Amino acid sequence: MVPAGGGNALTLPAHRHAVRIETGNGRAPTWLLAVQQQGAGGEGLNLLRSEDGFQGFQKLAAVQPDATHHDRAELVAVGRDVALVYAFEAPSLSASSRHDVWFQWWRYQEGAHTWTPEPAVRVFNADDTTAYSRALLARDSRGRLWVQAFRRESDGGSTAVVAVSTDGGASFQRQPDLGRVRKRGGGRMLSVGEKLVFFYAMHDGFEPTRLRVRDAADPLDTWGPVREAFSDGIYHGAALSAVEDGRGGIHLVYKDETERLYYRRFDGTSFGPRTLVENTPDWALQPAVTRVGDALYVFYNHMQSAADYEIRVRVLRDGTFSDPVTLDSRTSFKGYLNALDVLPDSVTEVPCFYGDAPDASSSAKVMRVAMPRQPEGGGSGQDGGTPGGGGSSDGGAGTPDGGAGTPDGGGMPDGGAGTPDGGVDAGTDGGGAPDGGVDAGTDGGVGPVTLEPVFTNTTHEVLAVDGAGTVFALALDGVRSRLWASTDGGRTFSARGQGAGGASFWVMAALKDGTLLAQMSRGGSYHLERSTDGGQTWADVVALGTYRAASPASFAELGSTVFFLEYQTVTSGSTPLRLWASTDGGATWAVRFTFQTSRHGLALFADPVRSVLWATFGSSAAQSAVMRSSDGGRTWSTVMAGYAANAMTGKVLSGGELLLGQSTLYAPEHPKLLRVYASARVDALLTLPGPAYSLEPLPGGGWVLGTGRANVGDVQPDSDVYARLFTSADGTTWREARRYTRSASTALARVEVRGVLPSGDLVVRVENLEGFGAGGKGFQVLRVRR
């Protein structure tokens, strides 16, 4: 890829040198890699960029161009921006006033599709008697930035120092030191859920590795006591690679003082026993790890001889390592490695970077290899599948739009007769009557995924969670025209903005580039508004009249186009429903297609791999359908028809099938989880106790499904008054994870996952459920446990 001064150009192994960023607008993800070129070609510390996983690349800019000072960087992606720290790193360390630690933002510029640096902020200032090195960066669950480094002491020892920024990196406040070792130190600091975890060791000494942990809710200067992490040390304190495991823990691969590689898992409290990964000892042996879902890819450089190394990889799944796979067997010295910490399941290969040279003392090139993989099941990543907040008129009465108190999109007639629409089965398999829980696939298989409440909010109605983890909501005791936002995982809210002309917020979707779209009402009619500044200001973009959104799944992104599907409650007959399309991020819209035979447009689901758009419609047997378009919504074919096609939530699987949760309410069509194929084949996977309202992939792999308790229909017995969350680790075995009791029998009760926080915790919106606020509304934050 690029020349470098030596085979160990990617020191420090513990650092994240690379990040992958989704910039939206139909663009491929951008990959950024920080490389210290050590004077090769006159270059110092540079950022490289790529749009194809570093199969091709270009220099973005210099981070620190002075090649005489070997600074190394640690990168953290924050939305579309990049936060980084850099500090000196070399085999030896002596006192120098040049050895400071610097923090810097690289801000994304959408118009130019590039990143530009803000002025660097000095975090630790060295003098002629000391030096700082091995700077690490972590962003905790409250959005605070923590920088940890090691300070060289006059006696040859080193102190683990730490500072925190509560103002987005504008300034840093020194905190009490975290520990001290007798020689040079190294370690790792990671944000894991609501905790900040720091473990450290030292050079050339058979001492235990030590650990400190802090909770995000504690005062800034408060950490848990120093305790032993495990009895063996870590070679140089820094011969390691670690990543949060998506389940509240950490995967750690490290080299011990016998120069062998081992694996341990931190479960949120302590490290477990070690597992041998590589048994050939060598001074240059290093790991680099990447997590994809529940799989951990462990790259390492296996020594054949002093000038002949191989790049190998082993994959950890379900507690078992695969046999090694050799990715590069050319005869050369292959030095320190680096990899991206987490990649989405959609990737088709997992790359690794390393220095390659004739021998350890020669100039080198940074090389790239990759482990091919097949994406495992898991959705398109769009923000779809959950009903919206409210559905009441703008007149202030707080009653549902139709006036009859029936749930929207439930597949029942609105005429008031309460009779079924025919109840056809549409060719699904199974479908026996529910017995109060899921009646299929609940035994055996992969271990359970549990959902643990972190906290409960009874004062706000969640609208959306964006990609940066900002929670947008309405205050239950306030007006619907005032938007509130939380940047600390929903714990505290501040006023963010107001709808144009005092419009009321009902349904919101957050696009991948951070743009917010909201279906709103003003003066008795509906319209769409758009915000590009995090909800502070809003502008009208589409007048809808009597049409509105059913839920956030009324919006979908496919390539560079954003789609919106209309829903209406004015008439019970079929009516024209427009599919709107925007090719400029929601700024302007045009009608792409008009559907003529349905009453409700329920949901859209995008398949970016195949450029396919799915849509569901309701609500009678004649009006309901699952449809599919392969030309950007210009023409459509019916895949599934009849009352069974009523569905408000789903996700596209890796094979192109649609995983669909039915919202049917009348027998004989009991709601089920379906797999729908483009060929019109429909498989019933399991029967649900009530209509499905949300289906989302879980962080780390698997699924979470939310069901409701309708106030009409006959598929649920009177004794079943619950809304539920179900989880599955593999999409086959499902278990009830949480159950909520309906508050009032006259309204729909439901529970829906509305988003995932950077910690991996779920934001779950509730409606008409006991133990919450006005109208049974509010939300919970749930932690995923495996």
From TrEMBL:
This is Exo-alpha-sialidase. Signal peptide: none annotated. Residues 376-447 have a biased composition (Gly residues). CDD domains: Sialidase_non-viral. Residues 372-449 are annotated as: Disordered.
